[in-house]
Write a structure and sequence with these properties.
Blueprint: E1 2-9, H1 16-22, E2 32-40, H2 46-52, E3 57-61, H3 67-80, E4 85-88, H4 100-108, E5 114-118, H5 129-146, E6 158-161, H6 162-167, H7 177-186, E7 191-195, H8 212-230, H9 232-260, H10 267-311
Parallel strand pairs: 1-2, 1-4, 2-3, 5-7
Antiparallel strand pairs: 4-6, 5-6
Amino acid sequence: MKLIIIIPARNEEETISQVLQEIPRKIQGIEKIETIVLNDASNDKTKERAINAGASYVLINKIHLGLARTFQKGLDKALRLGADIIVNTDGDGQYNQKEIPQLIKPILEKKADLVIGNRQIKNLKFMKAGNKYGNMLGSFVLRKLSGAEVRDASSGFRAFSRETALRINVRFNHTYTHETIIQSVFNKLLIVEIPIEFRVRQAGKSKLIHGIFKHIRNSGLIILRAILLYKPLKTLFYFGIIIMAPGILLGLRFIYFFIIEHNSGKIQSLILASILILMGFFIIILGLIGDLIANNRKLNEEILYYLKKNEFSQK
């Protein structure tokens, strides 16, 4: 079994050495461990310190690609190198790399396809209230929309089986965390969470969360777009019904006044009811069209899976 740890990093010269040095050199059930530092166009000494700290590979983005695209690049590189299990961690030192054996254990025991480290955000006293409750809200929304019982959807400390990694195709640019969970759910892959340590950041600042409201907005859009990709009919059907419901009530109100009270002065209700019912109807039709497109996309994803499996089959 070959384990590859991928570490997206942008301007993490102060912590990248610590992260690499903390990674266990031997893990029961693993024959080979390699590390890939994904240097996302850093303008500091991240590259040099990663090499000096013993990184197996350092990949460099000539331009800043962002976390999501850098993550996908690392995932593909790990597959190409023959990884059986891939662990993603951060270069800022907030995750305890000594917990990697616990993180990959469910995959080694064939009890999980994707393992997520739960930071137990509710108990983190050092995390800002906006970040804490924003993360909790995002996880709640994801659970309700996707059905994934994940309490910490934003955690970047996670392990993927090879099969799971082959099926992951990150499309959106902001972050990969929510999208990969949704893809795993709809590919019927087993997701497990384990509690982990999450430490205070000792140096630098977050490269992802520049503003909590902007982060919540972007994450929410990713969740919504990903859900619409996989469940367009169900999502738009409910949305259409929500739009149609007040229109139907207004239509019944008009009928009541027109027939029972012989009052024709409620024509505004009839016009508004017609608009709402038609809007809801067209949204449901869009859901049907989206469902046909989604079925075609599933076929394309299955083709892509086999292409990737064949391309990365050489170890």
